Amino acid sequence: MTDLTGKTALVTGAAGGIGRATALLMARRGAALVVADVKSDVHRTAAMIREAGGRAESVETDVATDAGVATIVQTALDRFGTIDILFANAGVTGGLLPRLDTTTEDFAEVLRINLLGPWIAIRSVLPHMADGGAIVCTASVAGLRAGAGPIPYSASKAGVVSLVQTTAMALTGRGIRVNAVAPGLIETPMTEPLYTDARAKGREDRIGQLNPTRRGGQPDEIAQAVAFLASDAASYVNGQVLAVDGGLSAQLPFTPKWSL
Ligand SMILES: NC(=O)c1ccc[n+]([C@@H]2O[C@H](COP(=O)([O-])OP(=O)(O)OC[C@H]3O[C@@H](n4cnc5c(N)ncnc54)[C@H](O)[C@@H]3O)[C@@H](O)[C@H]2O)c1
Predict the structure, then answer these.
(1) Each residue's pLDDT tens digit in the chain (260 positions)?
(2) Distance from the CA of 116 to the center of ligand 1, in angstroms?
(3) Is the CB of 63 under 6 A from ligand 1?
(4) Strands 85-88, 56-60: parallel, antiparallel or unpaired by DSSP?
(5) Distance (Å, whole) CA 85 – CA 46
(6) Is the CB of 17 within 6 Å of ligand 1?
(7) Is 206 part of any domain?
(8) What span, in angstroms and rounded, lies between the C-alpha atoms of 142 and 214?
């Protein structure tokens, strides 16, 4: 039931990281892909899928605009005829540290890309999505509670949590499920400065030490969860946020006894 043969999937933020890993996995499971990103590396993602024998088109565009999303949707319909899966994944941090002087413009830009973008994508695919469609958005553990990102980023991801809950309910009876993944710390271009800094200081072994699995995650570990949520294997999972974070969000802060 995790097979995606015959389905068409749209993946945003697919130039690298979690989006690329998910697009590659969905293609291996049989889906035809339309991958989109504001970066030109998105064409490489599509090329990788085609080189492996899959079907993929790439669109270089801002996916937080009506026009950009319209192009992606039209590409999917022209090339593959249907839209069965949407993975609204594109996102930005807007900086790595919490600040109390973030400007209105900077805050609004993070909300535009991280929250409005997924909404535009959801609204745009719905007229073309039949019974059995699946939508997955990328939230974050930062959207579940404080401590994992800057203020606008965390607020935007909390908004994504509400977005999947409210759209799932608004779609009652349509046969379309809407869920989110909430990744913990994953090694991608987004977190590259953190990994580079830790490695330069010889402290790579400290990454992920706050979660009980005691390591950071890899993009494919998020892709596996997204592919599940997008597949018929998740047919009774709706309006949920699946944390894929090594257990980070399952616990309260504590001092482990081995460090006392
Ligand atoms: N890496 C982590 O630790 C982590 C943790 C939690 C959530 N996330 C979320 O996962 C998602 C994927 O991030 P990633 O970690 O793979 O990093 P990433 O930077 O590799 O991926 C994000 C992609 O989104 C694209 N993008 C940004 N704004 C865009 C726009 N307006 N239009 C089109 N594309 C745009 C970027 O170009 C980039 O390729 C993001 O939503 C991010 O917030 C990441």
Answers:
(1) 899 999 999 999 999 999 999 999 999 999 999 999 999 999 999 999 999 999 999 999 999 999 999 999 999 999 999 999 999 999 999 988 889 999 999 999 999 999 999 999 999 999 999 999 999 999 999 999 999 999 999 999 999 999 999 999 999 999 999 999 999 999 999 999 999 999 999 999 999 999 999 999 999 999 999 999 999 999 999 999 999 999 999 998 777 666 66
(2) 14
(3) yes
(4) unpaired
(5) 17
(6) yes
(7) yes
(8) 18
Please list the active-site residues. 153
- Token pair 């039931």 is found at 1
User: Residue 191 CA: which ligand 1 atom is closest?
Assistant: 1
253, two tokens: 């802060």
> For residue 166, what is the domain's CATH number?
3.40.50.720
Residue 121 lies in a domain: yes
Beta carbons within 10 angstroms of residue 255's beta carbon? 7
Give the structural domain span for 97: 8-243
Distance 258 CA to ligand 1 centre (A): 35
Alpha carbon of 86 to ligand 1 centroid (Å): 15
Given a contact cutoff of 8 angstroms between Cβ atoms, the answer to whether 84 and 129 are in contact is yes
